[in-house]
Amino acid sequence: MCTQRVGIALLLLLFLAGCTGMGTAPLEKTEEEGLSIAALFQTENGDALRGSAACFSTEAASEHCQVDSEGIVSVSGLPRSGELRLTLVDPQQKEQGAMTLSFGQGAVIDASTGENGVGHFTVRDDTSEVALIFVLTEDGTLQCTLWLEGTVPPNADYPQKGA
């Protein structure tokens, strides 16, 4: 009888230890969770690219997003690492600009345009959304940077995003 009580007590302790451990372990992000991007598209002088559309493409899939009246696009399910192609088209479906976006993981969040015109993005493992600004230059190239407080011209009516 004493052995039976000890056995039941041990099972109860194991069960309780398993339940408490479930709530304290950090959730691991998986590759399938993807990345969400809030992107502001504008010209060099800060005008929103209204009426344009952004196409985010990988070898396997593509996502077409209409740029809203403030020049903003939100897209989710993008790969957290690897490359994809961003193509910006005007209302007549004429290409305005394009760039390769290269994603990698690291200790900080960063975005820059390399000398070769590739947008390089570093995201942390705990990052699920990144806010970016894409600037269409007069020569038809796209430049990118993080969309942080103060990176949008002060006279613009755009909501400020944090990364």
Outline the structure in words.
The protein is mainly β and 163 residues long. The chain has one helix spanning 2-24, and strands spanning 35-43, 53-57, 62-66, 72-78, 82-89, 95-105, 110-113, 119-123, 129-136, 142-146. The strands form two sheets. A six-stranded mixed β-sheet has the order 3-2-5-6-8-7, with no helix packed on it. A four-stranded mixed β-sheet has the order 4-1-9-10, with no helix packed on it. Strand 5 (82-89) and strand 6 form a beta hairpin. It is globular.
Main attributes?
6-stranded mixed sheet, single chain, disordered C terminus, mainly beta, 163 residues, 1 helix, disordered N terminus
Biggest sheet strand order reads 3-2-5-6-8-7
The DSSP helix count reads 1
Radius of gyration: 23 Å
Biggest sheet layout = 6 strands, mixed
Mean pLDDT across the residues is 77
Order of helices and strands: HEEEEEEEEEE
What structural class results from the helix and strand content?
mainly beta
The portion of residues forming beta strands comes to 35-45%
Helix share bin: 10-25%
| Number of extended strands | 10
Shape: globular
Ends apart, CA distance between termini: 61 Å
What does the oligomeric state look like here? single chain
Low-confidence stretches are 1-31, 152-163
